[in-house]
Fold each of these.
Amino acid sequence: MRHVIVPRAPRRSTHVRLPLRKAGDYPVAIFSLAVTLDASGAVTSIGADVGSVEPTARRWYQLEAELIGRPLDPAHAAEKAEGHCAALRPRDGVEAPGWYRLKVLPSLVRKAVSALREQL
């Protein structure tokens, strides 16, 4: 028998999604965020993932680079997300067109960062 011990880390995470009722609650866009903060509240490590926008889920490294070293700020995060949406290749689907997936993504980023701030 083997055991795995994972040390507890002061990491906070959240997962937000925008489902459409007409699509059977299938998400139009998903954003997941995990951060570790230092004593001053600045982000020291981060993982940002986007799903359901492109054909496969992926890390959003460009957004991570914008948020590292700064305090959690929903408005700043949403603004940076909007600027980096152009690098994504959204997919069209029966539940939503690609342009709509990109349009709602910054608001999901704002919601995720707000949720993390509430955890503090």
Note: The domain at 11-119 is CATH 3.30.390.50 (Enolase-like; domain 1).
Amino acid sequence: MKVVILAGGLGTRISEETLIKPKPLIEIGSKPIIWHIMKIYSHFGLRDFIICCGHKGYLLKEYFANYSLHNMDFTADLSKNKIKLHKRNTEPWKVTLIDTGEESNTGERIKRIRKYVDDDFCLTYGDGLGSVNIKKIIQFHRNKKKYATVVAVRPLARFGIMALEGEKVKSFSEKPLENGGWVNGGFFVLNKKIFDYLGSNNSIWEKEPLEKLCSDGQLNAFTHNGFWHPMDTLRDKNYLENLWSCKKAPWKLWND
């Protein structure tokens, strides 16, 4: 099964980084966040990726074009313009990078990679991490036999919550789960029939297509109660960076 990664957005809420690189290349530790996402899928045996490029997509192409070279020892014979590779330290991935437009919305980006996917495929964004069990999500999708499955999550609150009793603070929770409903966690398993829902030009996947799938009874939710966190802002980036540097990254399901 192939994995489609939406990686073309402008990332305006983290413009401190995206002025010089696409959002999926922002590093957590010494690796871009897209690498962390791909490692999650690879851990479950999914190693065929399709990346929907847009904003500064040429940098994504350069990153993967030079990936092996950057992760191997080599000898460069400058007089002969030859490179001899030594230690192999790369990933068993197949990566297809598609230019899906600078101004395209998410639905349009998905529509433009239709010919590259099989009957069922995974879809995710290039800026969110989670301790999701991809294998269980795929099995859930196949058992339910609907066109689309979305992982539903409950995000952490931005601020601590205090329970008051008059003027007295009864309890304090620094990072509780939101009391509200579930939200789109950004991990999907889809059937190719979802392309029939992408008819309008430059549609937004999260609006008309998902709403129509929902009204047609073709959208199921796989609930995930474990770790999930998007990288929308510099604060998010620093939070994820701290988890990684402290070796407490819940999304690191793979062994080194």
Note: Residues 2-154+181-245 form a domain with the Spore Coat Polysaccharide Biosynthesis Protein SpsA; Chain A fold (CATH 3.90.550.10).
Amino acid sequence: MLEKIIDLHLHSKYSRACSPALELPNIASSCEEKGIDIASTGDFTHPAWFRHIEDNLEEIGKSGLYKLKEVPTSPSPSSPRLELGTKAGRRGNKTRFIFGTEISCIYKHKEKVRRLHLLIFAPNIETAGKFNNELEKRGVNLKSDGRPIMGLSGYEIVKIASAIDERMMVIPAHAWTPWFAVFGSKSGYDSLEECFEELTPNIFAVETGPSSDPTMNHRLSQLDKITLISNSDAHSLDNLGREANVMVFDDEADINYGEVRRVIKEGDRKKFLYTIEFYPEEGKYHYDGHKDCKVNLSPKETKQEKFICPKCKKVVTVGVLHRVDDLADREDKDIPEEKFIPHKYIVPLREIIGGVFEVGKKSKKVEQEYRRLITKVGNEFYILLRASFEEISRHASDPNLVLAIQNMREGKVKIIPGYDGVYGIVDVLPDKKPGGPKQSRLL
């Protein structure tokens, strides 16, 4: 059996607020450092990115999986590129890609304005091209953004994708985010059926998003037959794999688009081992609040304040936990967890190192330690999930790094929940001493 880590949601340099380093050779290189085996191409609706995909990727047989071409194309003069060495360069790079993208649907439905982000997957480049053509026929400006905005409804998107190829997948992205999600408090729905109507059977999976975890989603019995997937929604190379999926395959021939789709559609617990999760409190919309006033509220506190910011008296942003509470029809204790795909929590390695050294995760000191660990010990997921503490200890420059990783694995962390676009803080050394990095906005 072959175990693979899969990240099905990321972006390119053509998406708004995304790093210019997000080019396919760099993404493939970073995936190897992270331990990600299969990644989404991201942004295949964007014409320039589609050409970049054609220039850089080639299909492996008829598998629907793509790899870097052996001969590199000329780098973009306007974009920084990683130094691609022997280990993580094109030659022998093990990263595989599935055609995937995210779109933004903003439309009026049932007397309300809806804002819905959807993940779209195609079995090959030809099908992806057909989907792009159908959007352009309907007047969608695909050049505007890697995640294009359109006036088409979620229902229409499912109808289009199904007509092109029944193997396409449409999966609601970060399903609970307040502003742009199928269950979002600001512009979403109370059920999948309300959104997708008679086409709801075509929706067999939902992306939980960083601000919720599977346990929270399982409080809704309406999702019992829906497979929950987790992905990074990476806007930079560093954020690749902050959430992911772990599947096993019988052999190399078994690793293909069709099998990935089948495992997701059927929720095959023999093949879908677990999802890798943020602690949901770290997500930037877990709690309620108002970032301008630095007001962070639990759902109970929000109700006590009658949904009004106690400082500026404006309406607060209702977060994911509150929204789950509103729609849930059972409590944690009543969830039949044995029926569902398991999950494991991680804290990204750079965040752990930053917490130990009490510096920002983008600091030079963090980067130096990160490079040493992945060079001496192994890729990031190996360090976070599998490496022995003895092995990590031999190469870590601070013994507290071992303790921090042990605390992460055992859930012995202290968390300040995120709210209204401000990331939460996970303290992996809660007994060391107070302090550490401050909460940060939309990074």
Note: The longest helix spans residues 125-137.
Amino acid sequence: MKPNEIALVVFDLAGTLLDFGCQAPVGAFVEAFRQRGVTVSLREARGPMGLHKKDHIRAMLRMDAVAEKWKAATQRDWTETDVEALYGLVTPMQVAAAKVHGDLVPQALDCFHSMKAMNLKIAVSTGYFREAAEICFEALERQGFTPDFRIGADEVPAGRPAPWMIFRCMEALNVYPPTAVVKVGDTVVDVHDGLNAGVWSLAVVDSSSEMGLSEAEFTTVTPEDRLVRRSVIRSRFTTSGAHAVLDDLSSLPSTILDINRGAFTPS
């Protein structure tokens, strides 16, 4: 991509700005399937993270292992009726979890102030449905992170990896071309979302759903293990096409300055 003066940063929400390790969504998916007699692993529940939550359920059911467990438990293949039923179970659970897991990741507020000092516009997008999204947006603003625009997957024709939320952010804040925009997320779906929009697509590692650890758990990981985990996740993001992979948000402002100077080297 040719450098453009960056004018807009579009952040994902859970796992990127708040809810270190993206804890709120995953437990709800595991519990919803359990209530239908199907045991899914945390890895299976995390796999499609970043999608609209109903699309997330479909993606889980399309996994061979989950589909087999579903058929063993119900004696039939899953249907769209099952998707709706699971979504009905997930929704109140995720609303409740969003109220608990609303703390900003450690570097988010400093990053926000640095970017505002750079005169950047800031938007937030999420795969959460409206009720859970509003809880998270309120948590952001209560802690001093006040974006110029915010949008959820319910407000566009299709959620990630479709680029419509990013395009809506660009339209609302009057920023173009796409090379003047940076998207920051914590999942492979986020990376694809940015690439499909033609913007700079960056990923964060430490607080990510890919890492999957709470902040307390992350602090107990040994330096050696942390390096190994970061390397595996970094490779996953790079293979997915991310232009840059950051350990955390503290290096985002300097990465944007590098893009603006034409000194940026993709990961």
Note: The longest helix spans residues 80-100.
